[in-house]
RNA sequence: GCACCGGUGGCGAAGUGGCUAACGCGCUGGUCUGCAAAACCAGUAUUCGCGGGUUCAAUUCCCGCCCGGUGCUCCA
């Protein structure tokens, strides 16, 4: 199946394929590890995950590089404030970042590249630019990129800089640059500031150079796709193109994949609005990692997603429905043979699922196809017309679905537990919802004892006592479900 | 201010120049249950921000307005 995706560079939906005929080579801008990741960050990483998972489901091998920016102004400032070496400061947040990715079932890229471990590549790239007078050194020892040498500057963000006059809007004197638009490749250190001693002189890399250097290092001068949040389009990606293509004289990335920002409760997410959430904030409020994943991927990447708690609750229910459907199909009584109309539904769901994702990653439509199969399958099971031969077919469709959506296996309690343990260690337990804390204060054995007592009470028709236990547990976030094959309970 | 994107039921949303406007949640009714919960089934927008226009036909194309977002500066 041909996979088509919108390309920011061309403004068209285009077919994706590995240009070397082997592996699909992609670079995705990763985190700057100075704080815990928020849901906006994770929407981007999740959409990239959807892309790579779908490519792999289609039999393509991926060579996916993600950078970790472990040196920049904020890191230097925060590390200094914390009295830590920057390496120690960033290590904590990098670890947290990958834990969060795991909680959200985001596959790790094949290659994770830290900026601080690639300084020589960056220096070499800047030297390459300097040899053609594209990079120049200013009196303070910083190096800048000469935009005048790259006439296509603006081709990604569709900006026209030809009419911009130097000095009109920017105080040129302050920067000591040849042109106001020229951007830093290498920053000379301020007194006492963290720096590397290199052939360029002492300093640290500018923001953009790391991505150019590392992408070219691992993927070559030209590769298939570059991804990131929409805000990175300009100036970050534009500058990457300028640096890379000036040095290599060939097209850097063929395809540019940009993920839209989300809104929270209809507003821009920001700390001042009070609607800023990290993944850990949500886990501590009792929301499940799988529901967060499903919500963040269910709105196609080019649409603004409005993240709401009501939506999160809705997706919690949706995950439950999908999981119980798979359980039901696995366990339901079947009749011999094949139910032909159900088989047609399964085939249609599979086709619809793949076609939707292949069409510019339309995740909303893809999951809709699966839910239609859920309804048809449940109806057949309820009517006693589920054929034995339908079962493996339906499970195969669900396997395809889960190869991309990754929400069917239940790891949620582990991650809630994880968040609580973390909160306890960090002294943030007060941020956890009372219900979650009450729930986790009870051991499985204690809960089981109460459940058994209730079953006993029911047997003697002491319904008052039975209901009292049920209500008491419910207030602590533990739900009791009576079924034909016994009593089950779960942590909400 | 300039540029770009979006505004579809109670909520999140898909989609299309003309078939009954997907799907999830919610809500209502039903099956089940000691009662619930869970699970399942069924029903649930004469209508797609507002005002014009093009067309035999517009939610879908064009113009204007209002609202939200993004970029122009650090940001996923």
Automatic annotation (TrEMBL):
Main EC class of this protein?
ligase
Q: Which Pfam families does this UniProt record tie to the protein?
A: CysS_C, DALR_2, tRNA-synt_1e
One Gene Ontology molecular-function label: cysteine-tRNA ligase activity
- According to its UniProt record, the EC number is 6.1.1.16
Q: What residue intervals hold the motif 'HIGH' region?
A: 31-41
Q: Which residues form the Cysteinyl-tRNA synthetase class Ia DALR domain?
A: 352-416
InterPro entries in alphabetical order: Cys-tRNA-ligase, Cys-tRNA-synt_Ia_DALR, Cys-tRNA/MSH_ligase, CysS_C, Rossmann-like_a/b/a_fold, tRNA-synt_1_cat_dom, tRNAsynth_Ia_anticodon-bd
Q: Which residues form a coiled coil?
A: none
The catalytic activity, as recorded, is:
tRNA(Cys) + L-cysteine + ATP = L-cysteinyl-tRNA(Cys) + AMP + diphosphate
Q: Where does ATP bind?
A: 271
Co-factor: note: Binds 1 zinc ion per subunit.
**Cofactor dependency:** Zn(2+)
Q: Which GO terms describe its biological process?
A: cysteinyl-tRNA aminoacylation
Compartments, record wording = Cytoplasm
Q: What's the superkingdom here?
A: Bacteria
Where does the chain bind Zn(2+)?
A: 29, 211, 236, 240
Its subunit composition reads:
Monomer.
Name by which UniProt lists this protein: Cysteine--tRNA ligase
Originating species: Paracidobacterium acidisoli
